[in-house]
C-alpha cells in the first residue's frame, strides 16, 4: 500500500511520524511523509519518501495571547493549503493525517477518492473528562468540559475557513464550510488513532466510536546512533546530571533561561546538560555541558531529571526513560501535558514559563532528584508504556 503521512508544525509535531512511517515501511508498505523542508533530513534518515509542504514551523517567542495564536495559526494553514494538493498524487492509496493537516486532508480525500485515517498527537475530541488541551487544565465540570471542547473545534473551523475555501475551489469541489465537513466526519465515525500513552491519558468513555488511544509513536532512531564523545565523557565524570531544554519554544529568551538554569543547578548542587534549542541556551563550566540536538531516547535514561516545556513528545520521552520531570509549560497544549505528569506523580507541579525563576527551579529540582516518589512514578509509567505498540495498532487499522 502507498501511504502518505501529512504533518506540519514544530519538530515535535513531525518527528513521531518518522517512527510510525518506519514501522509501516518495515511491514511492507511504501511510505512518504509530506511536511516542511526543514524536516526533510529526519524523514530521509528514517528511509521514507519526502514531499515538501509549502510552509515552515512558527517559532514561539513566549507566552502569546489567544488572539495572537489564532492569527498565527490562520496564516500558517492558509500557506499550507496553497500547496497541499500538490503533495497528494493519484498513486496514493491512504492518507494518514495529523491534527494540523486533517481539516485540509479531508477535502483532498473527497476529491481524489482516497481513504484517510487520523493520526493525532493530542486528545482534541470533546469529552467531559477534561477541558480541551489548548484551553488549560482547569476542569469546568463534565458539561462545561464538553462545551469547551466544542467551542475549541469551532475556533479551529474559523482558522481553517479561508484555507478550505481556497482548496475546495482548486479541487473543483462545491463550497463547504469546515464545520460542515467536520460534522460529516463525526457522523461517519471517521477513525482517529491517538499516538500517546494511556499512562497519561486514558480513552474517555464518552468518546464516539472510531476514536482510539494506541500508544506513543517514537521518533525514528538509527540503530547505530550514539551519543557524542563529549557527552559520554561528561556523563562518566560524576553523578547523573539534570537535562534542561525547551525544544522549539522560547526563542529570544536564551540569555535569561541560561542564567536561570546555571543558578538553579548550582543552587541545588546538581550537574546539568543544557540543550541549546530555539531559545539558544548556553552555559560553560565543569558542572554543566551545552549540547545541540540529541536523541531523547539515548540521553534521558541517563539523567536524574528532565526540565522541559512539556511538549507531548518530550513529556513522553521523559516518562519512557523513567526520568522524573520539572515541567515549565510555555503555550498551547503544554500546560495540559504538564498537568498530566504532575497528576500521575512523575513531576513536580508545573512552573509557568512566565513565572520561572532560579529559586523556584532549584527548589523543584532538589525535590525531584532527592524524593524518590517522583522517579518511582515515572518508572511505573515507563513499564506501562513498554506494553503499548502504537505502530502495530495502526497496522491493524489498515485492515
TrEMBL record:
Keyword annotations of the record: Transferase
Which Pfam families is this protein grouped with? EryCIII-like_C, Glyco_transf_28
So which domain of life are we looking at?
Bacteria
In this protein, which residues make up the domain named Glycosyltransferase family 28 N-terminal? 3-61
CDD domains from the UniProt entry: GT1_Gtf-like
| UniProt keyword Transferase, yes or no | yes
Q: Which residues form the Erythromycin biosynthesis protein CIII-like C-terminal domain?
A: 284-388
The record ties this protein, via InterPro entries, to: EryCIII-like_C, Glycosyltransferase_28, GlycoTrans_28_N, UDP_glucos_trans
* Matching PANTHER family: STEROL 3-BETA-GLUCOSYLTRANSFERASE, STEROL 3-BETA-GLUCOSYLTRANSFERASE UGT80A2
Protein name as it appears in the record = Glycosyltransferase
Amino acid at each position: 500500500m502507498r501511504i502518505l503521512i501529512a504533518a506540519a508544525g514544530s519538530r515535535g509535531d513531525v518527528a513521531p511520524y518518522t517512527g510510525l512511517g518506519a514501522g509501516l515501511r518495515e511491514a511492507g508498505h511504501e511510505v512518504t511523509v509530506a511536511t516542511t523542508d526543514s524536516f526533510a533530513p529526519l524523514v530521509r534518515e528514517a528511509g521514507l519518501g519526502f514531499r515538501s509542504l509549502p510552509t515552515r514551523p512558527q517559532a514561539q517567542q513566549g507566552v502569546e495571547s489567544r488572539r495572537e495564536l489564532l492569527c498565527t495559526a490562520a496564516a500558517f494553514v492558509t500557506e499550507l493549503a496553497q500547496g497541499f494538493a500538490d503533495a497528494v498524487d493519484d498513486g496514493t492509496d491512504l492518507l494518514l493525517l495529523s491534527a494540523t493537516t486533517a481539516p485540509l486532508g479531508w477535502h483532498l480525500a473527497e476529491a481524489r477518492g482516497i481513504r484517510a485515517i487520523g493520526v493525532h498527537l493530542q486528545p482534541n475530541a470533546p469529552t467531559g473528562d477534561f477541558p480541551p488541551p489548548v484551553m488549560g487544565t482547569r476542569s469546568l465540570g463534565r458539561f462545561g468540559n464538553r462545551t469547551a471542547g466544542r467551542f475549541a473545534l469551532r475556533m479551529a473551523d474559523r482558522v481553517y475557513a479561508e484555507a478550505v475555501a481556497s482548496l475546495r475551489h482548486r479541487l473543483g469541489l462545491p463550497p463547504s464550510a469546515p464545520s460542515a465537513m467536520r460534522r460529516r466526519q463525526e457522523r461517519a465515525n471517521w477513525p482517529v488513532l491517538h499516538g500517546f500513552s494511556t499512562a497519561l491519558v486514558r480513552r474517555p468513555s464518552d468518546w464516539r466510536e472510531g476514536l482510539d488511544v494506541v500508544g506513543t509513536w517514537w521518533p525514528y532512531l538509527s540503530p547505530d546512533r550514539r551519543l557524542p564523545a563529549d557527552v559520554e565523557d561528561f556523563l562518566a565524570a560524576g553523578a547523573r546530571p539534570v537535562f534542561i531544554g525547551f525544544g522549539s519554544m522560547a526563542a529570544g529568551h536564551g540569555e535569561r533561561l541560561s542564567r536561570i538554569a546555571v543558578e538553579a543547578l548550582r543552587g541545588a548542587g546538581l550537574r546539568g546538560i543544557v540543550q541549546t534549542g530555539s531559545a539558544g541556551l548556553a552555559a560553560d563550566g565543569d558542572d554543566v555541558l551545552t549540547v545541540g540536538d540529541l536523541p531523547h531516547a539515548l540521553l534521558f535514561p541517563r539523567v536524574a531529571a528532565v526540565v522541559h516545556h512539556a511538549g507531548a513528545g518530550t513529556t513522553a520521552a521523559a516518562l519512557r526513560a523513567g526520568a522524573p520531570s520539572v515541567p515549565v509549560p510555555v503555550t498551547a497544549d503544554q500546560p495540559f501535558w504538564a498537568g498530566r505528569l504532575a497528576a500521575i506523580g512523575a513531576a513536580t507541579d508545573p512552573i509557568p514559563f512566565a513565572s520561572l525563576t532560579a529559586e523556584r527551579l532549584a527548589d523543584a529540582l532538589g525535590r525531584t532528584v532527592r524524593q524518590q516518589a517522583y522517579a518511582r512514578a515515572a518508572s511505573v509509567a515507563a513499564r506501562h508504556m513498554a506494553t503499548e505498540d502504537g505502530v502495530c495498532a495502526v497496522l491493524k487499522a489498515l485492515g
